[in-house]
Amino acid sequence: MGLLYSGDTEYLTGTVPYILEGLKLDEPVAVAVPGRNLTLIEAALGDSAADVELIDMTEAGRNPGRILPGVLLAFADNRPGPVRIVGEPIWAGRSAVEYPACAQHEALINFAFGDRELRMLCPYDRTGLEDDVLADVERTHPTLSGADGDRPSAEYAPDSVVEKYNLPLPEPRAAEEFRFDLGRLSAVRHFAQERAEECGLAPERVEDLVLAVAELSANSVLHGAGHGVVRVWREEGHVLCEVVDEGTLSDPLAGRRPASPGQIGGRGLVLVNQVADLVRQYLRPGATVTRVFFRA
Predict the structure, then answer these.
(1) Among the four 6, 40, 45, 112, which has the fewest Cβ within 10 Å?
(2) Is 262 left (phi over 0), alpha (psi -120 to 50) or beta?
(3) Domain MEDS spans what residues (predicted)?
(4) SS (H, E, C) 185-253
(5) Where is 47: in which H helix or E strand?
(6) Residue 18 shares a structural domain with residue 74
(7) pLDDT surpasses 60 at 164
(8) Residue 171 lies in a domain
(9) Edge to edge, what strands does the sheet with 176-181 contain?
(10) pLDDT digits 0-9 by tens, 217-267
(11) CA 159/CA 206 separation, integer angstroms
């Protein structure tokens, strides 16, 4: 359910009773919202806050692709029975580059839990967010709540949002590229490391970027016609790497669903989402473009 609020009073009126109701029903409750709002809720809950898992979404959900596997499913899958979550992945400080991944995340939540017993409330600031963002809320939530009560969304169509933000990514102004196949997987990692270091990425983040390139290039070889192209460059405070191959990613939840215990494979894109600050993908017939952002 999407909660449309304006100001702190409406925010707390919409979230705190929902949380307390869950606690009264002995449901595990998690609250994953931006830090300021997390502080508001914690204060309003008083002693009951100790019974709630409190998560700062600006950290845990900086990369929207990390929210499902690392926050929502991680909480729900480790607890039997019904669970209750307040999740706020979109706030006024989100960048235009991040937003398409955020909108797709909100749409994909509708397909991620299957028959799992879960109640989820997603707050949106009516006064701080753009009109097109609020229009997407209508499409990604079957029910909306606000000062006037609850109502079904006549625009609910999460598939359309996933497709709407499957957008070509702007070409970099200058980026060196490296073509790879099975015999050059080691070389592509060296290329990524050298370029990331030249772009000024911190040493520990260089390791993360190389790990992301290793996972993506291995996927290209296994699932993308056996070869691909990687590019690394610096742009607007980030070091970016992009892998392009001829594979077709058919599962929209790939990389957003944790691998099952004992599952062979299926961990590469999840790992990429864990280490990156943002992951954007563009899927077109016969090609997959994956662009990964690391704050420099």
Answers:
(1) 6
(2) left
(3) 3-142
(4) HHHHHHHHHHHHHHCCCCHHHHHHHHHHHHHHHHHHHHHCCCEEEEEEEEECCEEEEEEEECCCCCCCC
(5) none
(6) yes
(7) yes
(8) no
(9) 176-181, 227-235, 238-245, 287-295, 278-284
(10) 999 998 888 999 999 999 989 999 999 998 887 788 888 877 666 555 567
(11) 35
Count the domains in the chain.
Answer: 2
265-266-269-274 Cα dihedral, nearest 10 degrees: -90
The Cβ of residue 9 has, within 10 Å, a number of other Cβ atoms equal to 10
Same domain, 148 and 242: no
- Report the C-alpha gap between 214 and 243 in whole angstroms: 10
Among the residue ranges 90-104, 166-180, 230-244, the one predicted with the least confidence is: 166-180
Among 11-20, 132-141, 168-177, the range scoring the smallest mean pLDDT is 168-177
Closest CA relative to residue 209, chosen from 259, 140, 276, 162 = 276
- 141, 165, 189: which is the final residue of a domain? 165
CATH of the domain at 244: 3.30.565.10
Overall average pLDDT of the 69-80 stretch: 90
Single-letter amino acid code for the residue at 95: S
Strand positions, DSSP E, the chain? 2-5, 29-33, 52-56, 83-87, 118-125, 143-146, 149-152, 176-181, 227-235, 238-245, 278-284, 287-295
* CATH assignment at residue 94: 3.40.50
158 pLDDT above the threshold of 60:
yes
Distances (CA, A) of 231 to 9, 106, 138, 265: 47, 29, 37, 25
Residues 188-217: tens digit of each pLDDT: 999 999 999 999 999 999 999 999 999 999
In this structure, the answer to whether residues 81 and 217 fall within a common structural domain is no
Q: Which domain holds residue 258?
A: 177-295
User: What's phi and psi for 131, nearest 5 deg?
Assistant: -60, -35
